[in-house]
């Protein structure tokens, strides 16, 4: 399976999760490519069997750059996706907002995704985040 992860990371917590998840999925024999949404245009994403969109949560929502990226995303209608978000508030709406942007494009959500708590405004990540990401990698593999 070919996996592509597009991510936004302001303070490095999301990037840390993406790097860990990339390694966990690769260990399962799948290929994984990652890009920051600051490095790639939404109309030039490579083809993949599964897309993972990783976003921080700012005031309960994905940042403006992520929403703009997803609004302009050009991807096949039958593409499969899931999400990974970092958050301080477990009730944050970031995964639902991402779903609302992607499902009208005909994309299919294959997992509830991963939610990783950030213990302070700039981090660090919650203890045991690696176990959550290992379980997420198992789920989507």
Write the layout of secondary structure elements.
Layout: E1 2-7, H1 13-27, E2 31-36, E3 50-55, H2 64-71, E4 80-87, H3 94-102, E5 108-109, E6 114-117, H4 129-140
Parallel strand pairs: 1-2, 1-3, 3-4, 4-5, 4-6
Helix pairs in contact: 1-4
Structure description:
- The structure is a single chain.
- This protein is α/β, with parallel strands linked by helices.
- It has one domain (2-140): Flavodoxin domain (Rossmann fold), CATH 3.40.50.360.
- 31% of the residues lie in helices and 23% in strands.
- It contains four helices and six strands, in the order E-H-E-E-H-E-H-E-E-H.
- It has helices at 13-27, 64-71, 94-102, 129-140; strands at residues 2-7, 31-36, 50-55, 80-87, 108-109, 114-117.
- Strands 1, 2, 3, 4, 5 and 6 form a six-stranded parallel β-sheet that branches.
- Strand 3, helix 2 and strand 4 (80-87) form a beta-alpha-beta unit.
- Helix 1 (13-27) packs across helix 4.
- It starts with a strand and ends with a helix.
- The relative contact order is 0.21.
């Amino acid at each position: 399976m070919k996996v592509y992860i597009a991510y936004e990371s302001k303070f490095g917590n999301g990037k840390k999760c993406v790097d860990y998840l990339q390694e966990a999925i690769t260990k399962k024999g799948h290929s994984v490519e990652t890009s920051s949404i600051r490095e790639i245009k939404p109309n030039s994403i490579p083809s993949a069997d599964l897309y993972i969109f990783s976003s921080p949560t700012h005031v309960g929502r994905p940042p403006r750059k992520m929403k703009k990226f997803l609004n302009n995303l050009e991807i096949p209608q039958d593409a499969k996706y899931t999400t990974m978000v970092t958050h301080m508030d477990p009730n944050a709406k970031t995964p639902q907002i991402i779903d609302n942007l992607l499902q009208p494009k005909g994309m299919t959500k294959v997992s509830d995704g991963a939610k990783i708590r950030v213990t302070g405004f700039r981090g660090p990540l919650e203890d045991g985040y690696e176990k959550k990401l290992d379980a997420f990698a198992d789920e989507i593999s």
